[in-house]
Design goal:
Strands 2-1-3-4 form a four-stranded antiparallel β-sheet. The longest helix is centred in the middle third of the chain and has 24 residues, at 77-100. It folds into two domains: 2-107, no CATH class; 112-166, CRO Repressor, CATH 3.30.240.20. Helix 2 packs parallel to helix 4, helix 3 packs antiparallel against helix 4 and helix 4 crosses helix 5. The chain has helices spanning 2-12, 23-43, 54-72, 77-100, 102-109, 123-129, 133-142; strands at residues 113-117, 120-121, 151-156, 162-166. The chain is elongated, with a radius of gyration of 23 Å. By secondary structure, the protein is an alpha+beta fold.
């Protein structure tokens, strides 16, 4: 068994200085990290790749940063993989808890803000969220409408998207 671990250690360059890693060692580390990442993301929360909230983006940024250290050898390889699994598990736990607690959900994910009501801009909310009238109109056009007067409510969602509820005709 010891000879197996010695072989794995040599193959992955475990314990080597980052500058001493070979192309093959970094490539193998990259393959292992990719497969490991796919597994923990699939076992974790599928939402993290689709919802685009700041909470989900933070997971992806932190995970990428931590796992890069495993590939480039600047941190212990297996400890880094384990730490990444803990980060994904924490994200899943917080997401689960935030679905059951409105206060925690607002703390973690934020809340949508109205930008337009009955075709009129709500300038105070727009200033607070750093959104211009041109931003709203651009998203309205992308939604297939050009007339702001036809909008009952427009909200800046937690994801950063602007959603529109149109007036009934």
């Amino acid at each position: 068994m010891q000879s197996f671990w010695n072989s794995v250690s040599a193959l992955l360059g475990l314990g080597a200085e980052p500058k001493d890693l070979t192309f093959l060692q970094i490539s193998l580390r990259g393959v292992i990290v990719l497969v490991f990442t796919l597994i923990i993301i699939r076992l974790g929360d599928k939402r993290s790749l689709s919802k685009k909230s700041a909470f989900d983006a933070a997971l992806l940024i932190i995970l990428a940063s931590v796992l890069a250290r495993a590939i480039n050898g600047s941190a212990a390889f297996f400890a880094t993989l384990g730490g990444s699994a803990v980060i994904v598990a924490l994200h899943g736990t917080l997401a689960y808890a935030s679905c059951r607690s409105g206060g925690l959900r607002r703390l973690i994910k934020g809340k949508p803000n109205e930008l337009v009501r009955n075709g009129e801009f709500i300038r105070r909310n727009m200033r607070r969220d750093h959104v211009t009238g041109d931003d709203v109109c651009e998203d309205l056009r992308l939604d297939g409408e050009e007339d702001l007067a036809k909008v009952k409510i427009a909200r800046l969602e937690c994801s950063g998207d602007i959603s529109f509820i149109k007036k009934k005709e």
